[in-house]
Amino acid sequence: MTAPDFETLAHDIKLWAAELGFDQVGITDTDLAEQEPLLADWLDQGYHGEMDYMARHGMMRARPHELLPGTLRVISVRMNYLPEQAAIARVLSNAEQGYISRYALGRDYHKVLRQRLKKLADKIEQRASDLVARPFVDSAPVLERPLAAKAGLGWTGKHSLLLNRQQGSFFFLGELLVNLPLPIDQPVEEGCGKCVACITACPTGAIVAPYVVDARRCISYLTIELDGPIPEELRPLMGNRIYGCDDCQLICPWNRFANASQEPDFAARDNLHAPELLALFDWSEAHFLKQTEGSPIRRIGHRRWLRNIAVALGNAPASPAIIAALEQKREEADEMVQEHIDWALARQRAGLAQVDRKTERLIRAVDKGMPKHAR
């Protein structure tokens, strides 16, 4: 194929991608050399926590051509996921409900994007028979956000997520590595300026510097990636967030422009949209697996699910019903979950005792103010 042929193919790739439901596509080369010292420093600081896979592949994350020898270009795509009537503020402000990051309310995005990237590769192969391609969706050691930024899909915000002027940050990313010398797109201008809203809004102070996240303090890491106990000092800061966290996105001014996704697969499931914590805590493992079928939530397993909800119940207003549920679940839980249940029980009992003391003081005050014949 000649250079004009590749120009035409790149144009058609973007049309095909739109037909497949992607909201934007860009093309870039594989050079991420400037990211290597940043990645090395992040790993040296231990900011990846227990995510050993982040360090296992070394600098391969910054070298896409090592993943697929012969790769010349990366086709980077994004797909909006914000569901209609996301009810973010309403759920976050109700401590008796569980907040689930809005990206996880629908079908597992890995499957959705990967299938469509494969279809995109099939279309390209019809035009270029010598195509060698491989799709990735958060499934291999690839620095997808720097690649997307190089491809012109947005810029890296101070919370380390990709930001887009038309869609904020509520979107998924995927990549298709190809061996074709397609023309590349140009990066866009950074738009954060002096804004530090995401840094100050993080409930646990996980954004330790602009563009640097200490995963060990991030609620998304704590509720999804961490397998063992959640550090006790961070539990009160988690509120009712039981799977992921969106706070750094919610506060970002650019997300005022975010549009709701038109993709049916990302529509919020009724059982996860604004769920009652006690109802979720009552799920057996079999029921958990049934209710999260086809959902990214299933990957954390029932054990971590109970751990996360126990923390949220410990942060909820004091209630005899919550104490009863915690005591009942404790009998069947393993040692790790029991630790979080015990923490939640201590918080609940202390809160209930405080309520009782306030009630007693109120009764005494009223009693003192009443005439003797009315007591």
Automatic annotation (TrEMBL):
GO terms for molecular function: 4 iron, 4 sulfur cluster binding; cobalamin binding; epoxyqueuosine reductase activity; metal ion binding. It is an enzyme of class 1 (oxidoreductase). Binds 2 [4Fe-4S] clusters per monomer. Gene3D superfamilies: 3.30.70.20. It catalyses: epoxyqueuosine(34) in tRNA + AH2 = queuosine(34) in tRNA + A + H2O. Cob(II)alamin binds at R61, D138, T156, L162, L173, S220, C245, D246. It comes from the Bacteria. GO terms for biological process: tRNA queuosine(34) biosynthetic process. Pfam families: Fer4_16, QueG_DUF1730. InterPro entries: 4Fe4S_Fe-S-bd, 4Fe4S_Fe_S_CS, QueG, QueG_DUF1730. Its main location: cytoplasm. Pathway: tRNA modification; tRNA-queuosine biosynthesis. [4Fe-4S] cluster 1 binds at C192, C195, C198, C252. It is found in: Cytoplasm. [4Fe-4S] cluster 2 binds at C202, C218, C245, C248. Catalyzes the conversion of epoxyqueuosine (oQ) to queuosine (Q), which is a hypermodified base found in the wobble positions of tRNA(Asp), tRNA(Asn), tRNA(His) and tRNA(Tyr). Belongs to the QueG family. PANTHER family: EPOXYQUEUOSINE REDUCTASE (PTHR30002). This is Epoxyqueuosine reductase. It comes from Oceanisphaera psychrotolerans.
